[in-house]
Write a structure and sequence with these properties.
α1 packs across α5. The chain is an alpha/beta fold and about 210 residues long.
Length: about 210
């Protein structure tokens, strides 16, 4: 049965952040709010956790996972970013955007797209996620909490607890979290290509 933490949305309690980080380090799967929609998150590279997320989401191995990073320098460790890509990332992060980029050898192959060797990367603008990333000292692997057959991600924390109580290890509540997922942009061709319009405005992307 999943644990449940209620955190302050602006000043999350350090004790609960530490406990959440311990759950993640121990191999736990967490449902947490972001600056867009709720997401499933775990530490990077655990094959069993990847399969748990795929099973909950109803997606196959071609699903793009997202690496949630603290800042742009961390993105640069895990993805190949040229100068023009960096300028775009700097203009809109932190924020509700996910960028598809080519992964580096710092990432396990299993988290990359099997053919393209790409991954989603983002820097969210959410105090709870930022505090958790700082406590962990490493990125989180995540996927939008969108269940099979649903058009929008889950937003109601009570519904998340009811439906996922036996499938995740921790549910974090921190005030209202909207239903819009991130705006996803593919940067691998050298020109930004819109994959999914979401919470992030298109204007700053030039799209």
């Amino acid at each position: 049965m999943a644990q449940f933490f209620s955190l302050h949305p602006e000043q999350p309690q350090p004790r609960l952040i530490r406990q959440a980080a311990d759950i993640i380090r121990a191999g736990g799967l967490v449902a947490l709010p972001t600056d867009s929609a709720y997401a499933l998150a775990c530490h990077v590279g655990d094959a069993a956790l990847l399969e748990r997320i795929r099973r909950i989401r109803g997606v196959d191995e071609r699903h793009h996972f997202t690496l949630v990073c603290r800042d742009l320098s961390e993105i640069g460790t895990y993805a190949r970013v040229d100068n023009s890509q960096y300028r775009l990332l700097k203009a809109v992060t932190p924020g509700p955007y996910t960028f598809i980029l080519e992964g580096t050898k710092e990432l396990p192959r299993r988290v990359l797209h099997p053919k393209r060797k790409t991954i989603g990367l983002r820097v969210p603008d959410h105090p709870v996620v930022s505090a958790l990333l700082a406590e962990l000292g490493e990125p989180l692997l995540s996927s939008t909490l969108l269940l099979p057959g649903e058009e929008l991600p889950l937003t109601d924390v009570d519904e998340i607890r009811d439906r996922l109580a036996k499938q995740v290890d921790l549910v974090i509540e921190a005030g209202y979290c909207g239903p819009e997922a991130t705006t996803v942009v593919d940067l691998t061709s050298g020109v930004p290509e819109l994959v999914r319009e979401g919470r992030g405005p298109l204007g700053p992307l030039g799209l």
